[in-house]
Amino acid sequence: MKRSITALPQIYRNIRRATEIATILSKYGLNEIIRLTRLDSLIPGWRRENSSEADNLERYEVRIRRALLELGPTFIKLGQFLSTRPDIVGVELAVELQSLQSQVDANKFEVVKAIVEKELGKPLDVLFSSFASSAIAAGSIGQVHLATLPSGQEVVVKVQHPNIDKQIKTDMEILTTVAQLAEQFEELKNYQPTMLISQWRRVITAELNFRREQQRLDQFHRLMGKEKGLKIPVAFDSHCSNHVLTMERINGRSLQSLCSTPNGEYDLNDIAKRGAEYYLKMIFRHGIYHADPHGGNIIIMPDGRIALIDFGMVGRISPQLREAIEEILLAVINQDVAMLGLIIRNIGLVPSRINLSDLESDLAEFVSQYATQSLDRFDVSGALNDIVTLIRRHQITLPPEMALLIKTLVSLEGTGRQLNPHFNLMEILAPLRRSMLLDRLSPKRTIRRLRRLMFEVEHLVDRLPERIGNILKMVQDGEINVQINHHKLGPNVNRLVIGMMTSAMFLGSSILLSMKVPPLIFQEAGPWGMQDISVLGLVGVLLSMLSSLRVLWSIRKSGHLDSEDA
What we know:
- The protein is an alpha+beta fold and 566 residues long.
- Among the domains are: 2-103 and 167-203, no CATH class; 109-165 and 207-315, Transferase(Phosphotransferase), domain 1 (Orthogonal Bundle); 489-566.
- 60% of the residues lie in helices and 8% in strands.
- The protein is built from 25 helices and 13 strands.
- The protein has helices at residues 2-6, 8-27, 31-37, 53-57, 60-71, 73-82, 86-89, 91-98, 109-120, 124-127, 164-182, 186-189, 193-208, 210-224, 255-260, 268-286, 319-333, 337-347, 356-370, 380-393, 400-419, 425-440, 443-476, 489-514, 535-558; strands spanning 130-131, 137-138, 142-148, 154-160, 230-231, 244-248, 253-254, 288-290, 298-300, 306-308, 314-316, 520-521, 533-534.
- The strands form 4 sheets. Strands 1, 2, 3, 4 and 6 form a 5-stranded antiparallel sheet that branches.
- The protein is globular, with a radius of gyration of 29 Å.
- The relative contact order is 0.06.
């Protein structure tokens, strides 16, 4: 009872905020969203407002963007997050939401001063020799001031708005409840709104902690700091906290300014090419990249270096996903529709009732359109948007990191074309594609994949007895009924066992060869460039090859694998 009473203020705040949300959505003619999400069920006695005629004349995507902007910081951040998920909201809405930038009033200097002194534990005039009283920018999470450290270093200081975390927490509670209600609708269930809001919660929670952005700056400085033509701002740890971030000031012109008023001082084509190369290096070599490459976040310094600012949105790409991207690229090049469909189904969340023939038909049309395009005319952003539209049509949901990567590549090509209308990202990707093909054949990658396979097999073997025990218990309890009808099962089982043993022998022997386990032969260069060959590994490979040939011969004698008599 006591807990219920103390929760009353929170319940009241949530109802009041839910009423405000529903009223604003209704104002912009978005009553269908209210109906689908059952938002009105959270508000006792709520009545919708009539939307204005002017709002109804605007496109649906524009009305959503305007509604999110009016709803405040949490929904602005939600819209920016949804702009990275065109596979869920559609390409048109995702593009519209990319322009969603908050225009908020900056806090007074006295408020900012109090926050900085509380967070850093010292008076402002001790921390900084100068601190501008007016903010140069104010966003949904915080505002930015120019300042100078006692050492004379020019810096920018990002200060979080007071109590913004409490407002976002209230909105997150409402959105979590709405997502749970929306998941009861069949047309929304496949998009897993609860999972989507959970992903967004992690993103915005990380963004509220400025220490995370400081860590990202440090990480990018370590990875890309040696690139002569690239500049990553340095964060000053002594002047950073969870709500205050102090970093090196970057002097120069933003790409946005440079595109709108070029002065001939810079080679715009060279900037576009170098910038794309840096991005692709971050993505495909380091597996972590700045995920918001619009013109305002890229600064061209007086000496021609390209500087990246605002590391609030950072993407990561795992080795497995990198391999999947390589496979997709090769499948399109080779016009292998079946392989492309298999990869998409493996990396995406596929609905149980998907029509595979329709999917393959759409993929065949996509491949025929783009596989024959010449390199200098290949439209990367068009191809990525088309494949996302195709995936969304079949209600396939991509992994968040894949969706964010697609959005980044589309933005990257768009920014490049602002600098040079003839810019083509595929020309920058071409050398990378060749290195991808060579990397697939490298011994280092083979060893890495073998180690991962061995770890997975070891993990499976460790858990296998427990899982078999669980299955047997379920059979014993009558939860599973098993009926087995077999025809010539013995020979097939023998082939399966021999095949598994052969595979294990081949993998083990390959590792012996790669690790050069003694005894060794050809310690000096031998025939065909062979050197330091493990005898045990070589013997194992030969035996596994002979065993493979024996299994293939027995299958050939008894018939094809897909025949009923095999």
